[in-house]
User: Fold these one by one.
Assistant:
Number 1:
Amino acid sequence: MSDRARGRRLLVRDLAQLATPSGRDAPLRGAALGSVDVVNDAYVLCEDGRIAAFGAMSELGPLVGEVDELDGRGLSALPGLVDCHTHACFAGDRVDEFELRATGASYEELHAVGGGILATVRATRAAGEAGLAEALRRHRRWMRRAGTTTFEAKSGYGLDRETELASLSAIREAGGIATWLGAHAVPPEFADAGAYLDFALAEVLPNAAKLAVAADVFLEDGAFDVDQARRYLEACRAAGLALRLHGDQFTEQGAIPLAIELGARSVDHLEATGDDGVRALAASEVVGVLLPASALFLDRPMPPARALADSGAAIALATDFNPGSSFCESLGIVSSLAVMQLHLTPAEALTGCTVNAAYVLGRAGEIGRIAPGYIADLVLLDATDWRYLSYHLGADLIAAVVEAGNVTWSRVAE
Ligand code: NIG
Ligand code: FE
């Protein structure tokens, strides 16, 4: 704990409402997925960067000693939002491709002619370490203003030793949780995926494993096939990394069976998942991470979220923030899409981008809930009902962000 945090107390008082996923378990599934505790006319007391207590204002006893206060009148408090799937560490943009797609070019076609992911690889390699770190800090500011207090970010736009490791270091320095997406695409200097993986596993993995907490692979036609994905993930698991997969985004290539076989934390996307995949995932420990902003951005079908939730799968929600398939850093917008397009309830959406997302990142038990002992990460909505998170589509809804008991962004201070 920093000296700044020690002994410091922050009282968020007179909140119109406070909402948090119920209980202490993670990941939540079945009926528990939609179980949220709501307190009206509430307070949250933060101490030493953790939540010390919360409840109704009428139950708040006298506080002796120094306490900073934050006026919550007219506001609702939620746990700080957790974005468990982003590609925020990139340079440049793909606004030209965005325009081309509007006139008929598909995402897969642009990828096949060296655009898409490889266009961002060129920009990211060219940015240099300092330029890349600056771009990530800018993206991190956008995420914070959108209410995200914990973010995961993947490498995968370097695909050479230097830029992959610089990406993972920059993510850690920006306060993020780093995932090594060493198998995102085959860079042009390699003849095929096998030759690239020979290099990545021998030359990059040993250092990447010291910086990242997880590894990820893009298992898809035109990227890595199931055998290549298995080889990559097995090597990463042996190096101590948790496993994640981009799977069933455009086509079903066996991502769910592979994720289950290898004991992966999550399989992410699932826009192309059929009934067998839904059943298999529901019967497993693997979390399905749904990325509705990406499906919207690429005009793809939405993932079968309702079927997954109803069959008891553990699901989480994330932005997939990246320059090509989801230029959206807002979990508020993702929550709206979760209700409007995935047919989840506001409570299921909240669980998806708080406690279940924290579980995917290996942080359940300390973030994603308002509960005593949890890290004091909060987001205050400019709304008297917490369900505005999903209800108020695209709104400028965030009044303040609290991280580890410190106000890190506030509309009033801007
Ligand atoms: O999750 N599908 C693979 N990777 C990213 C997109 C990356 C990009 O287009 O730059 C995704 O959608
Ligand atoms: Fe992604």
Number 2:
Amino acid sequence: MTGKAAYYITTPIYYVNDSPHIGHAYTSLACDVLARFMRLDGREVFFLTGTDEHGQKVEKSAAAAGRDPKEFVDEVSERFRALTKLMNYSNDDFIRTTEDRHIRACQELWRRIVANKSPKGRENIYLDTYGGWYSVRDEAFYGEAELTKGADGEKIAPSGATVEWVEEPSYFFRLEDWRERLLEYYADDGASDGGASVAPDSRRNEVESFVKGELFDLSISRTSFSWGIPVPDDDDHIMYVWLDALTNYITAAGFPNEDSEKYKTFWPANLHMVGKDILRFHTVYWPAFLMAAGLEPPKRVFAHGWWTNEGEKISKSLGNVIDPADIVEQYGLDQVRYFLLREVPFGNDGDFSHRAVLLRSNSELANDFGNLAQRVLSMIHKNCDAQMPQPGEYSQADKEFLAAAEALITSVRLEISEKQSFHEALTLIWAVVRQANGYVAEQEPWVLRKSDPARMVTVLYVAAEAIRHLAIICQPFMPDSCARMLDQLGASSDKRDFTSLGPDDALLPGTRLPEPEPIFPRFINDDAKTGE
Ligand code: ME8
């Protein structure tokens, strides 16, 4: 979709019991690329990330560290803020669930859910006693039938986490009454407005069959610990951490001030990006809570897959957690950003391996793209007096090649804005990168230098124009490297958005060019470094 409609995109807010790892970096990276893409496409964007700071898991982690919970969350939250800087995310806000604005929003949401009746005319929330299994690690309740037996006879949740028996007074949300409304919500294919409400399709099928099955009322408050947001008018209860956490998305949009410009502009959110493990919370509980409060559900939830490390599940106990700071230091930020979105079809699981990062950095970034720019710019520098040359008349081959570069944005836009197929978008872009290399190889400007210097100039200009298109379109993925490439091309800094694609804002002949420098280094495949 093009046009100027506002776009609100969110990452999950991260639990502050942990340090940032590659999984956290991945979800937010996908959002960042989408946010940058939408801005370059002329849309007003609000990109939110932040930290999820309440609940039993965080309370336990603080206690284990011998710290007061607030002091603990203040410190750990900063690590996630640092991640946003490290990864060069362009988030517009960083929300913390311990902030007053959020506590206010949660309590108001609760009140509204209480004030409204369910579609079956019943109270949405009622007080009872919860007796059942709870996993602190997942912050989730499980039915007996979902559990398996561990090695020592302990009960294990489908996620692999252990569960404990919980019995305490609790408020319940009448989830079952919202089944029909939820099914209608999943059926909306959103063809004119950003796609289906749950994506990819396999995930939509998964939640649909969950909701068609037996739906238990959801326990939404806890009484056996205190690190959470008090339930309005009943201080003995704190809200279930997922109800609290999910509400962050409307807090940041200005709720409960629904008359605010921000709320009117950005709610409902266009896209909640999540990992597949938290699909149910976002596509069942969250829309049901919102509908019960009389608010609109998000337009779309996209669940991506999980990363393994060199074939193994990533876990603290295996000691194979990948710290984004380490790989950024080793390979460079834009190389990591490119790799994470290129390596795996977005939505599928994928494996991180040093060999794969090296291969892609060397062959696709250094060889295919970096060399292309370096060769063309060096020839211009040497043979055209370090200025963007004035091209002569275009040949048929020039026209066809430039037309392919100019058409690229249309197919890339479809893959990114509507399908979140980042890998497909990169495949399409790289097809043009390869076409550009083919063009230069075929036209042989180094031969033309002697035989037909005027034609050489045209060839170099056409190649530079194609590189400008590629660098503009790649900006969301690799902002710093593309900015450097556009600087080297002498592309005006206010002509780098998608409206500048096409011939009207073409590179200006006569522009002085700096000495070209390689943008993407080649990595030596050092066995010691890869551990292979
Ligand atoms: O779930 N590969 O927070 P979180 C890919 N606080 N993604 C991974 C991953 C991996 N190996 N490991 C984790 C929470 N993730 C809640 C969210 S939102 C209202 C509350 C992803 O810190 C995971 O799928 O445990 C999730 O999207 C994100 O990291 C946050 O995980």
